[in-house]
Automatic annotation (TrEMBL):
Highest taxon above the source species: Bacteria
Keyword Oxidoreductase: yes
Keyword field: Oxidoreductase, Peroxidase
UniProt-recorded name of the protein: Glutathione peroxidase
Any one GO BP annotation for this protein: cellular response to oxidative stress
Active site: 35
Recorded family membership: Belongs to the glutathione peroxidase family.
Domain Thioredoxin: 1-161
InterPro entries reported in the protein's UniProt record: Glutathione_peroxidase, GPX_AS, GPX_CS, Thioredoxin-like_sf, Thioredoxin_domain
Entry annotated with the keyword Iron: no
Segments forming a coiled coil: none
Record GO terms (molecular function): peroxidase activity
PANTHER family tied to this protein: GLUTATHIONE PEROXIDASE
Amino acid sequence: MSVYDFKVKTAGGQEISLEEYKGKVLIIVNTASKCGFTPQYEELEELYKKYGNEKFEILAFPCNQFGKQEPGNNQEIQSFCQLNYGVSFPVFAKVDVNGSDTTPLYDYLKKEQSGLLTKAIKWNFTKFLVDAKGDVVKRYAPTTSPLKLEEEIKRLIEQAD
């Protein structure tokens, strides 16, 4: 099993298979518009502009489970990301990352890379790094700057060649 076995919904409600990203290094991140970590969108976009091509992708999943910091609907979230941070990577439909309504992708990510003391996602901007084979390589805390993942991203892209 890999991340490619899952389907997710775009912000427009269309279901797509993550198999579309096969062969790419991925960052999968749960996001929020009204969080202290929201400025990480800027660093994520910087990484995307630098590496985002046929070998790297960032997949953002808005979530309102932490302090109700993502109250908008999918269209409002898209507008916020583009207007405030110039986000050009995919921002999908809002999801739950914990609890009984957890999206299956996040159940899998948490099973593959548990957090410190718990499998649960603790806050917005928890980041999962996935290699080009679809294997979850590492989980990063919300406090970890996306730019700190750059060396690992480069290494995984080189391995994929």
